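Reviewer 2 asked us to include a model.

Predict the structure of this chain.
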Amino acid sequence: MANHKSAVKSIRKTARRTEINKNRVSRVRTYIRKAEEAIETGVKDSAQAALKIAEKEIMRGVNKGVIHHNTASRKVSRLCKRVKALGAV
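Predicted model (structure tokens):
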């Protein structure tokens, strides 16, 4: 247990930030899952719409500091590739 007043406050702040960051990561993962589900249906229009929303949420996660920029870019790139492949079928 913390012995100083500032350490106690630090623990409170960390707990609060952890909860917020967990929610942010969960939100990003939800939108990625929705995009993947739209891709699985095979309807290109809905997949593109879901991708647009997912990309926005992923980049928001980068700005908030819960996802690394390169990780986000990789995820967006792979989703784009899969949506683009729908048109080739």
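The radius of gyration is 18 Å. The chain has one domain: 5-88. We have added this to the supplementary material.
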